[in-house]
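Review form for a predicted model. The reviewer records the input and the model, then writes brief findings.
Reviewer: anonymous (R2)
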Amino acid sequence: MGSAEPLRVLILTYYWPPAGGPGVQRWLKLSKYLAERCAEVEVITVDPSRATWPVRDEELLEEVHAAVQVHHTATFEPFGAYLKATGRKEVPYSGFANEVSSPGFRQRAAKWIRGNLFLPDARKGWNRYALKKAEAICVRSVPDVLITTGPPHSTHLIGSALKKSFGLQWIADFRDPWTDIYYYDSLYPTPLARRMDRRMEQSVLEEADHVLASSPFLKELLQAKTSRREGFHFFPNGYDPADLKEPAPSVNTHHLVYTGTLTELYPIHSVLEALEQIAGQTKWTIDLFGHADDTTRRSLEDSACSFQAHGFVSHQEAVQQMQSADVLLLVIPDQQPNKGIIPGKIFEYMGSGRPVLGIGPTDCDAAQLIRQTGSGAFFGYQDTEGIQRFLESPARTEAKVSVTQYSRPAQAEALEAIVRRS
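Model under review:
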């Protein structure tokens, strides 16, 4: 920062270690590099003993920068009642990806309740506790900037209240869409619920000083909901160079790795068909680190490849597995709107230096990113021939262009510039 005064940054995020999954990485890493740039960073998050995170990763606690001051608060959430009502044993993932594709009556009823009675989301019971803690911090000393990040988008309502009370600079960070998220209709919202949700969304977009969007499509989508033209920024996810260790030499030249969630919404039939076509010459192995539904798992087990499911692993283990792969598989869910989906893992995929095989709409933001960086190739859901050519081509291992602009240190510098310009 040179001679500039240190920034006082207050971050409100529901997802924080020991929560696992991609929603944690963005502000865990940015807080680290903001602190290293001499910013004074405080984080308000939920008490881990009361949180309802679908995934936990205890190792991430070791990555919280020592200079970042973390405040935990209580919460009140309905997921206990949800699990009891549906007979499930685990909290639903984003988009209910760990639930069956044809839910029964109890699950449909629970989704309706979530989509109509818990607006904007089922974690809004955290707000009153987080707001109380934030108010105490602001009374002591108003921060230079407040950052709220969603999902859960109810967190942004805390930002709105704090801006009204203290007049501070507020950045609303959208990692995913709000009323345009691809699974929104599966919550069966009534016209009244849609109007209420959209009204809250619009108020956040109009009141925040800056809005960060994780994809160009999302930035345009959000900006179109207001009359303002300034203050919207494409702010992608990224990768931490410190996570990337020197990988061991590969002993298997036909090793495909997928990390994250894989369900029927993520079609991989063209990949399996391509592997079937080349099975006579080369037999590939596929390792899945994450969650697959029963139908997808059976398809993989019955395929021409050697398949192994490992379940969710720590973030550090996932990054190491990325670096050991010969090809990294990326699949965009086949449900509209999906053009603006850029999974957070794509940046770690690119940072690992391993070629990326992308599947999805060929004009989506993720496809553009892979092409621009030369990080691999992207194909439509039905393009078996193109996928086969890619897997058979030695050119897939050619050198990539630099992706350092997506490193977390570079992003922390960009974020500081946005704050100081205001």
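Findings: The CA atoms of residues 329 and 357 lie 5 Å apart.
Further findings: The two ends are 16 Å apart (CA to CA).
Recommendation: see findings above.
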